[in-house]
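User: As part of a screening pipeline, I want to sanity-check one entry by hand. Below is the sequence and the SMILES for zinc ion. Please return the complex as structure tokens so I can compare it with the automated output.
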Amino acid sequence: MAITKKQRAELRMKFGGRCAYCGCQLPEKGWHADHVEAALRKWEFGERQANGTRKIIYSGDHWRPENDVLENMFPACAPCNLFKATLTVEVFREQIAAQADRARLYSVNFRTAERFGLVEVIVKPVIFWFEQYQSEVI
Ligand SMILES: [Zn+2]
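Assistant: Here is the complex for your manual check:
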């Protein structure tokens, strides 16, 4: 759904001008309007290209158009929006909580930094900014 400039400016300020998830300051340009519940854009394969691949063409329609409304949108930084993709908020939370373990498992850089005390993993619940922000206002 296309939102007006004014709606977009209001959405950016929904949680104090910060990303609804990580809480970083949103720049004036380059932040994303995240669908909290995915609207799932419809797509189809385009014609096969010379290299054998096919482009994905988005039609502009959604599988769940009821989710493509302003009330279902949160302001998000690009990394949070791209990571969340079509995940629900709770699955997104689980995925973030798994990041340190995943880094330890797959990154020798992380393991080295941890072994030398340069990185310290803190085990704590993942609380999104929109959850903290709301509780501060109440
Ligand atoms: Zn973020």
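Points to compare against the pipeline: The chain has a mean pLDDT of 91. The chain has one domain: 5-137.
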